[in-house]
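Course exercise 7: structure representation. Students receive a sequence record and must write out the corresponding structure in token form. The form below is the worked example handed out in class, using IclR family transcriptional regulator (295 residues). Read each field label carefully; the graders check that inputs and outputs are placed in the correct fields and that the protein name is recorded exactly as given.

STUDENT ID: A-19
EXERCISE PROTEIN: IclR family transcriptional regulator
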Amino acid sequence: MTVTVSDDGTERQSSPPTRRVVQVMSLLVEHADTGLTLADIVRSTGIPRGTAHAVATQLCDLGWLTRRPDNSFTLGLSFLATSRRAARIDIVATAAAPALQALVDATGTPAFLAQRDGDAVTVTDHAGPPSTVVSTPVRRMALRPPLCREFVAWADASTRDTWLAGAPDDQRPRLTAALDAIRERGYSIERITDDHRAIIDALNGLAGAPSGLRARMADLVSELSAIDYLPDELVGEVGAVSIGAPIFDGDGAVVAALVSRPDRTMPAAELSTLGETVQRFAARASTELGAPTVI
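STUDENT ANSWER:
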């Protein structure tokens, strides 16, 4: 009986010819600077010589490989042109998109994807439940305290210390404890009390103010925001503007965060459940990027 691909994709028919093509192309990409002989390809892949010759010849005909005068093979112009187009694709955003939408579907809460870009974090995608008007989050923010904690909690000691050095002296003990708590539970929580929210609403009414004043307003918002929750504070009714969990790449570095935006108060147990849900979908995106199973 012939095995076919099922509708849900749980069974897939093996394709040795496709696997051999991928093996050959992957090998040539690794040796793009030097090229390889047919003997090199056979030795490295274990593909029979006749089959390897047929694969390489076909790839040359398609422009994905080029045969040099010394009969060695290197990457062809058609492949290089295709690779250049593919390089413009945002790999992190592509890997995280299904997890972002799945998070929104599971929670009924708007969410966004934030990506690390040097010393800043940029929102590159966002989504919300159907028939819901989703406001666009702040597009770009500096990687400075107390912001972007989920990007720093898993960093090495030197990176953490540099980030902490940007905070006022009296905030550093709290921030240090918050980073440890975030790493332990797996997600950050942006919290603002009702009193703080009233002040922020008043500040937002000055949107037409000069840029210098608006920058100071942003600083005030950060200062008014209580810096995350420590374990003994997650009791009773708690407020969460957003909950962010890290997305890791294949090297185990935090390259993005999946952020849910409940923007409401809720029982502490509900917040913990929501945080674990965000963490689970962020882990799904990490897996797509080849992250280690245990971070």
